[in-house]
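#random but structural
TW: two for the price of one
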Amino acid sequence: MTTSAAEPIPQTDPRASYVAHREEIDAAIGRVLRNGRYINGPEVEAFEAEFGEYHGGARAVAVASGTDALHLALRACGVGPGDRVVTVSHTAVATVAAIELAGATPVLVDIDPRSYTLDVRQLEAHLTGAESRSIKAIIPVHLYGHPANMPAITTLAQERGWRVIEDCAQSHGAALHGRLAGTWGDIAAFSFYPTKNLGAIGDGGAVLTANAELADRVRLLREYGWRQRYVSDVPGTNSRLDELQAAILRVKLRYLTMDNARRERIAARYHAGLAGSALSLPLVAEDTRHAFHQFVVRTSRRDAVRESLAARGVSTLVHYPVPVHGQPAYRGRIECAGSMAETESAASEVLSLPMFPELADAQLDRAIAVLHEVATEAPGR
């Protein structure tokens, strides 16, 4: 029996977030327009304070994008030409692009197949002795909303004198051992791209740190190195979050905990509904709060399953189909420390199912029914 496609189910729907909070967002936008201050004004200052408070009183510095957040965090930590920075290949290319923007050299390691995050065992096996001496920093990526193994990573980094820069683009509100992602390392970078757990209506990002000196460096770097207007103390850039986006983010931040709880309920429904199916479901490490930015399943028939789902009105995405080290811009010129077997396997099998807080139970149940049907089809059907 074939399940009816009915109304298409999107993989994500940033418009739904606006609709859910339309009155508050419209009021916030109107407040900015009437105020007449559109860059680095009271909304940015208030959002920085509120985002920092959400993370236990850390210092937040708003910037123009998640990529800029990583780039400026690296520069604030003194990373530049001649330095090497460890990260993963199974990530958005922005992670590696930011390292190169800082003038440093990326060094890629394999992932743990359970969490899709940096495998510390690979790090210990392949980056020892002389190989580790030119490494200045490490960027663990909390991919899909699952935190990386931060206790092991921070311990190793302290032993070797590396800076820890957390890539939190997909982990707003995630936690490990009761401690939020973004509060483990020296500094962290967040993206507010519209589809994120905390998404703007446009681009945006923030750097988060408990270190006042690092926060001050980021503030200098984001606006031409100015302490005094029009006078640059250090070479900087232009990376400012505008007042409109800050005002919108202030509204959405108030609902982040509630929205993440809804994501967890959706994930639980997927787990219950897809148990026993031909799909490999995401696992959550012990004492971990997964933010479920994505709900990612695995199948060796990924492309066929995805095509069949699309034909039945269920949209999916692949995060990510080509590891960074295999992409044309980086192939053959980027260093990989050891095998990338798990990374390459994941890239050929992962599939992101519909996941956003406004996903209705009826849509979710229909997606699960279609998934059961599609995942058990004979190969090549």
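TW: number two ↓
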Amino acid sequence: MSEKKFEETLAALEAAVEQLESGDLSLEEALLCYEKGVKNALLCRKRLQSVESKVEILLKERGGALRTEAADEL
């Protein structure tokens, strides 16, 4: 998601949903809006999965020392 920030992509996805729910679009406009929405949804999911794989959780061990583990190791 290098060309757009996550927040911008999510906002564009939300705007597409609002437009589609309004029912004010022609069939062609609705199809184009839907296609853009799907693209933005996929970009958001990809970015979230990327971030999720990098998240580390701090765990307090018995002796009080802190250690980190990747989220997918829990």
